[in-house]
Here is the input.
Amino acid sequence: MVWGAWICLLSPLVAAGLITLGGTRLSRHATGYVATLSCFVAFGGALAAFIGLLGRDGSQRQLVSTAWWWVTGGSYRSGLEVMIDPLSVFMMLIVSGVGALIVGYSIGYMDGDREERRYFAYMSLFVFSMLLLVQGGNLLLLLAGWGMVGLSSYLLIGFWHDRPSAIAAAKKAFVMNAVGDATMVLAFFLLIKKGNSLEFGILGGQYSSAVANLVALGLLGGAIAKSAQLPLQTWLPDAMEGPTPVSALIHAATMVTAGVYLIVRTHAIFEQAPKVADLAAGLGAATLLLAGLIALVQVDIKRVIAYSTMSQIGYMFLGAGLGSYANGMFHLMTHAFFKALLFMAAGIVIHALAAEQDMRKMGGLRALMPRTYWAFLIGALALVGIPPFAGFFSKDSILAAAMDHGAYGYVLWVVGLAGTFLTGLYTFRMLFLVFWGEPSAFVREHFHALRRDVVGVSMASTVGVLAVLSAVGGWLQFAPLWHPVETWLQTVAEPVVSPTSWQEAVSSALAFALGLGGIAVAWLVYGARRVAVPRFAFAQRTLEQKFYFDEAYQALFYAPAVFLARFLRRGVEQPLIADTGRDLADDTRDLGGLVARAQTGLLRTYALAIASSVAVLAVVFVAVK
Amino acid sequence: MIGPGVAWYLAVAGFLFGTGSLGVLLRRNPLIVLLSLEIMLNGANLALIGFARNLGDGSGQIFALAVMAVAASEVVVGLGLIVALNRKRVTLDVDRLNTLRG
Here is the structure.
């Protein structure tokens, strides 16, 4: 019930405080255990809330608990409150569950790092922020969580702060997210002006189409920045500078999917602004295609998975934008499982190869680490959407939903199907490059197996649990036959589209076939090496430069800003501010020199001054009297 | 009322005050300067007492007593400074103590 939600929210915060205040009094390993334990406690709290809601009727499944009124101004007020309803409990279970597994994995992965305590404090802070985001009972608290996950993400991307590239990536992520935060805040201002409230209920009110469109656009801006969708996607690949568990937790399983959560949570306003909802779906489709293409040429194992994350979130945006909320959320859940699994398995590979991430130096790891290979294979199959693994059940329903959205929907449907082919291709390209073939010279030289102490156990057990979840997690919902997720979320977000079963069947069959096709092509080129890697110089260069987004932003925003700053410094600051200040200082000093002459240091001068002043005063006094 | 009127008292007080201030302004020995300062204070005291008597009010006299107490403390500090200066073999001449010149 509600107390479960409070426990869930506060236990990671307590852990973060404990680790921070404990300092060196807590041993390095102890901080890892404290953080992991707090996440498991949070998961327990989320389970309690879930069970509490299960026992209630569908219409009664919304509980708000207000600690106190946090912000009041005039007739406006917002409480510090948590809300549990089917959607927030759904997110709480994913965040705390996957979070606990990944924080536990970090005990092994971060073993021997110089600043483990700081790492675990940040991780706990992140889990708290993410839980605040999904549990916040009003938009203001959602925004607070939204900003705090941005902060924790910034801190964790830049965790290895002696690497200039990590610092640059952290700043980039923060700035890109700040753009989205700003548009969200503008939307909130508009809501306060029109409705004088930031409760979730305010979104269902009646607004003129201009207001609804503006609010929805503002919210969409926040969502695409946080979820790394076009055109604010460039920060996510760079964010791979952080430790691998951070990439898994923040940049795959939870934070980057917050945009999908936001759209589903505020679906009422998107339903009033169908054009913006279509835009969200269109951006998702464009992102899934572009990211899939870029992933084909990446050589860094983590970057391939990062682009795949962008691509999969594109599917979620597609689903959420079309109004197929439950399917978007369901894909969010299965994606959290299999993408965390892929990152964790990649983390074991990186760990085993002395922190090497370049796939060109890998190869033949299947014989050396068979269990990791199987786990990675399960994650890859789930990602491509091969039954019976998780991705099949969630991704295909989104594609089916696209067919129920008119001509525009069919365009998106085709793009989504093309995306499944690309997914098969880039995922298995990675798998074949890393695990198949003969061990390369680099691997033979640097490979060292996972230790069998707590380091190895914590990493291997997490990967095992996630592999099982990726394998069976999708069975929770099979759209044509049973759909508990949809029923569960129905009271929060009623789906707008309802694909028929032939649409489901066609989408599933085509997606399955195209995914297999992608795998087959990857096998021909990278697995069996029967076909040479095709070379198209222009296409390759374009993809390696990520469609020149970074260069375009450099030219469009960075260069003019630098130019303007230089101009202002030379044209305005130097003559107006700096020179004025210097003149002022010179004049003051000259004046001071004049006044200083009166200060002779001779007692009698002062005494005479006093005496004559008194005499003058006395005369004036008498004269005036 | 027996004795001279208040104007006489004020005239003497003014004379004392003038004498004292001239001493402060013109003399160079700090001891004499201090002494002249005391004369100025006494002039002021005499004016206070004269007014108190004229008005038949005791508070002026009380005030004069307070001024004497303050003057006594001030002399202690002043003489202490002069002794300290002398110990350091500084010439006792106020015109040469001008290190605070701006």
Observations:
- Chain B has three helices and no strands.
- Chain B has a mean pLDDT of 88.
